[in-house]
Design brief:
The chain is mostly helical. The chain has 2 domains: 1-106, no CATH class; 118-208, no CATH class. It has helices at 11-19, 22-28, 33-41, 43-55, 59-63, 72-85, 91-105, 111-118, 124-133, 141-151, 156-169, 180-186, 191-207. Helix 7 packs antiparallel against helix 8 (111-118) and helix 12 crosses helix 13 (191-207). The longest helix is centred in the last third of the chain and has 17 residues, at 191-207. The radius of gyration is 18 Å and the shape is elongated. The N and C termini lie far apart (48 Å). The model has no long low-confidence stretch (mean pLDDT 96).
């Protein structure tokens, strides 16, 4: 665990002050306004605390840097921090680190840890986040294939969000639930054959 310098708050305390109750952050999604203010006021402290949060396995800490306005030096610091953390990070940190590293560097190769999580046997909630994060990346044939595998996932919500990512890549703005035919193929009762049909149709729509 990363040692916090004497006088610094611990990550859990700082996180709650900046983002609020963990349950509400999970339920409603994080609001980064307060953290942005704190980062502007004391970027060194905020950076140290994000490093501590990443070391503790908090995916929110890995997500936050891409929500900040950074100087080149700060950008470099976060790129180094996240790159160093990746080899031993848990799934949540890995997928958020990949998304953040892409946002900070523009290198689509950082999709690799996101795809790794989506393809894994990790808890479905983490795989949902990976399916959602893929939307930010350019739809290469490899990533389209990855999202299409997500549409074949045994977990309904992983299928749902993977399908939405493919829809975005195909230039469509609606949710897959708004398309009655595709949605009928995604539900549990459709079975693996229906999921595969939906995956193929969505992938073809991206590459058409």
């Amino acid at each position: 665990m990363t040692e916090v310098p004497a006088g610094d708050p611990d990550w859990a305390t700082y996180r709650q002050e900046a983002f609020g109750e963990p349950y509400m952050v999970w339920h409603d999604g994080p609001d980064f306004a307060e953290f942005r203010d704190r980062f502007a006021a004391d970027p060194d402290l905020a950076t140290r605390l994000l490093r501590a949060g990443i070391a503790e396995g908090d995916a929110l800490a890995a997500q936050t840097p891409r929500e900040l306005t950074l100087t080149e030096g700060q950008r470099t610091t976060f790129v180094e921090m996240l790159t160093e953390a990746l080899p031993t990070a848990n799934g949540g940190v890995r997928l958020e680190a990949g998304a953040t590293l892409f946002a900070l560097t523009g290198d689509p190769g950082w999709s690799a840890p996101v795809v790794e999580v989506l393809d894994s046997a990790l808890f479905w909630g983490v795989r949902i986040d990976a399916a959602i994060r893929l939307k930010a990346f350019p739809p290469t044939p490899s990533l389209v294939a990855s999202a299409a595998r997500g549409v074949r996932d045994p977990e309904y919500l992983v299928r749902y969000h993977s399908a939405n990512t493919l829809l975005r890549w195909a230039g469509r703005t609606e949710e897959v639930s708004d398309d009655e035919e595709l949605f009928a193929l995604l539900v549990d009762s459709a079975g693996a054959e229906g999921w595969a049909t939906a995956a193929d149709r969505l992938a073809e729509a991206v590459t058409a």
